[in-house]
Specification:
This protein is an alpha/beta fold. It is built from five helices and five strands; from the N terminus they run E-E-H-E-H-E-E-H-H-H. The longest helix is centred in the first third of the chain and has 19 residues, at 35-53.
């Protein structure tokens, strides 16, 4: 397990408050890039998402890189869907979108086989897909969702803008 601290970037540092996030990166199972590369991807993704949302404060976050079997078990237990998915987010605390950060944001879990399969099907670098899914999972922890068309459009726009900060092409194009 690697621990990292990031201070998110901003196009204009005066435009948003400072955020410090203590991040635990844990490779539990599956085939993933090296932990140092994953940590770099996570740091950049979190920084871009925080800059895009203007989030400030201090908190903790856990990112677990796992496999389809584990995420399928989690998906069945917590969402009643007995199938693997690419990413799941588990908030540690409920808080309003745009509200002050809780002491612990929660956990984001990714499944290697599904992530690799999607990246191959969409003909995109796996590191770009991982980055996108970390941003997507983090936005859920920050109170965003995509249950309605309007919510989905808002969340996807934030994802696109955060990824653009990292020069990663629009994943929805």
């Amino acid at each position: 397990m690697l621990k990292t601290k990031i201070a998110p970037m901003a196009q204009n540092p005066e435009s948003c408050g400072e955020a410090l996030v203590d991040i635990d990166v844990f490779v539990e199972a599956g085939v993933w890039p090296a932990e140092a590369e994953l940590t770099r991807l996570v740091d950049r993704a979190v920084a871009a998402a925080f800059a895009q949302t203007g989030t400030s404060g201090a908190s903790e976050l856990s990112i677990v890189f796992s496999d389809d079997a584990h995420i399928q078990a989690l998906n069945a237990e917590w969402r009643g869907k007995d199938k693997p998915t690419n990413v799941l987010s588990f908030p540690a605390f409920s808080f309003p979108k745009g509200g002050p950060l809780p002491p612990m944001l929660g956990d984001i879990v990714l499944a290697s086989e599904t992530v690799a399969r999607e990246a191959a099907l969409e003909d995109k670098p796996i590191v770009n897909h991982i980055t996108h899914l970390v941003i997507h999972g983090l936005l859920h922890l920050l109170g965003h969702d995509h249950e309605t068309d309007a919510e989905a459009e808002e969340m996807e726009a934030m994802e696109r803008a955060a990824l653009a900060r990292l020069a990663i092409p629009d994943p929805y194009a």
